[in-house]
Task: structure prediction
Amino acid sequence: MDQLLRKRPYQSSFPGTLFRLLILFLCLSVTAHATEFNPDWGPVGVFNDAQTCALCHRASSDDDSAVPAVMRDPIQDDGEDVSPSHQWRHSIMAHAFDDPYFLAAVEHEVSLSPALAGTIEDKCLTCHAPMARTHAHQTDSQLTEDTSCLLPDGCFRLATADGLNHAREGVSCTLCHQIRADNLGSSDSFSGGFSIASEGDPDDFSIYGPYPNPHRGGATAMQGFSGYTPSFGDHMNTSFHCASCHTLFTPVIDVATGTPTGAEFLEQGAALEWQNSDYFSGRSEASECQDCHMPEPVPGSYSTRIAIQPNGSVNSMWPERSPFFTHSMVGGNTYMLALLRDTRAELGIENTTSVNGFNEKITQTRELLENDTASLDITRIALAGNTLDIDVLVSNKTGHKLPTGYPSRRMWLNLVVRDAAERIIFESGTPDSRGHISVDASHLATDCLAVDKPPGFTNTGCFEPHHDIIDDPSRIAVYESVLEDTAGHITHVLLHASRYLKENRIPPEGFTLDQAAIIEPQTLPRGVDGDDDFNAANQQEGSGSDTVHYQVSIDEPDSRYTVEARLLYQSIKPDFAAGLHGDGSKVTRFKTMYEASTPVIETLALTSATLTDTDRDRVADPLDNCILVPNVDQRNTDEDPFGNICDPDFDNNLSVDFSDLSFLKSVFFTANPDADLDGNGSVDFADLSVLKAMFFGPPGPSGLAP
Result:
């Protein structure tokens, strides 16, 4: 059982919408609301509430013009509030415990492994209620000892956390800023292995920040007001600070026996992916998690005082600091932000949050997803006989795999091809009003979702395999991780996962197989064999991209084809929501919320391209040596840019004139190949007719002509 404890590297129709809202209303009407969260809960041990920190670490008043504005963007009196307290309040970090999906997932895992209930809950709360869990273990209080707890001092349980405000505040100020540099980046720091000094330790109540000389200015004020000592911590700027929770290994539970196998499964490993990328320290595009997820208000040019006085006034004697990183904590989960917004009363956070606050965070998140996540390019569109060949290049712009995080996430390509009349002739990956795509129907089959698979079960149809070539609209390019249990079957139970059945999330630029095998073998792709351009370009790996090759059959030629491609993203795919087992209150609540809420599908990137075939000869205009006259054979005997059928310019002076007529006359009724414009083997009246129609004009037009 030690592996459980050990830390190591680890768009819908109106009636449908109305109906779902009615379901949600009825559900919430009969469900007891959570006790309202009280933000004034501190101090507790070495922790204090965010509201105490916010008395000073907030923006100055928008009408104080006596000194430069504090934590306002732009640096104007009426600029946007970019203070830590404002930006953090509506983030997923602040609501790590409130998250109804998290709570349902824990209940689901516990229901399937009840003998390990205490250990499971304690481990999950290490990062989702870190202040309360850390305090409980530091003080040996509020811990439960029973047979389901394998920790020597006892386990911090979900029922206990639910009644504690310092648990419900999630990942807060005095949690992150008290994490010491001890072992960060090592295997011991992963899976919630961060280190925080206990009360009475030499460095207790040290608040680490990214600025040298923290005692300059307001240090005495902080010590006197809050009891914390500001200290310089260069580790606050590193990705490994974040990695202590965002790199997680879970124990593998044997699906047959219900006991741990001793192996560990990499549930998420953004930092390990980042280490194997061009974004890692010392490499070409080096950056840290904070650069994207806590972005500067004005990159490279913003400075501000980082606190005001408790009475709200600005102390002009305190120094300005730069760079200043916001505490926006933007991620990739607009769905959960919207769900938190819409169920504030149900979750007991109505008095401490606002609709506008969550909407602001959703906007910030969407901007990150749309601008800094991925790019999409149609690199080839061509007609080859009865086939329209389309190459779509998906490029990862992040420092980790795309998508990253909890394995419920997926990304896919939506491709639509239209003819000249705007009729759809090919469509792959278009979601319906519930956020489902065509392949989901089979993925939601009872056997696919079952914990215990029936005899003879196979994984066929339970997930969409990786595709390099798509020649059928029923196939979709889906980028995701799919879990496999110890029996080799697909599973939606995290603790049953032993390895990835499919792992084709797009690696970051610079990612190589050799380094993956050294850093962590579980970051290696799986199921992409035979795809030579997955994370490769020009036979060089590490491109951080993938090219999907579409082959669209054309029955009748048309004059124009328009291709639209979208890269879509979903934080909870339907089979993960449906795969929650048990009838506990938290599972039931989330499933009701999920069914009643409009699913959020984000567009990460989009692009389009048009291919014209004016003469409908199945040769696209850019490659057609006679755009207006059908010539499938592209016959061109004089090897100039113009095909014979539109090239009676025999002297190549770019004008059809009397000299060309004279030449045609001289070879009339012969087999001269240049003058045989229609290719029937003889220079005759048909060829003369072509010349006559183009007399006193240029040859062509040709798509090959300059």
